[in-house]
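Before surveying the methods themselves, it helps to consider a single example record, giving the amino acid sequence and backbone structure tokens:
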Amino acid sequence: MAEAERIIGTPENPDVEGADEGGSTAADAAANAGRGKRKVLALLTVAVVAYLLDLVTKMIVVAKLEHQPPIDVIGDWLQFRAIRNPGAAFGFGEAFTVIFTIIAAGVIVVIVRLARKLYSLPWAIALGLLLGGALGNLTDRLFRAPGVFEGAVVDFIAPKHFAVFNLADSAIVCGGILIVILSFKGLDPDGTVHKD
């Protein structure tokens, strides 16, 4: 967690202490705090939407598609096929379900703790995708069979010659890709841009 906080950093914001030598005021600090709250709201909105989409699609898949033949969406190139995945994303590490559950819970805690230092909308979107995806798969691990911390995740999106996945996996991957892009562009979560 300390490493994640180091990466996120603390926004360089002298206004928080009051007026500085350049004439910043408490009003500037209030404006910055308001911008930070809007970014947290954006993070939470993205997370809730990603989580609900994942939850609803999994409920539909379990009710309508489980124990049924696959549905061809684009010929045999893309199918909807219900499977239960006790491993990590894309079916890796089936023997480590409890460890993946703990990691997902840790990711959620880190994102929630770091949200208070967030002043960048793109970072808010990226972290919201990670949070929503992690919550989606964590819900399966906690509440689906065979039991708490060992639940199998419902996967159903089956491209040809690729692993079966779900919307939570997609949100996590998209959030991760966005974080890599933002890092390469030099945009920090606190809204500052740095050039290396």
User: Anything to note?
Assistant: The beta strands are 71-74, 78-85, 153-159. The longest strand covers residues 78-85. The CA atoms of residues 108 and 131 lie 6 Å apart. The first helix runs from residue 2 to 8.
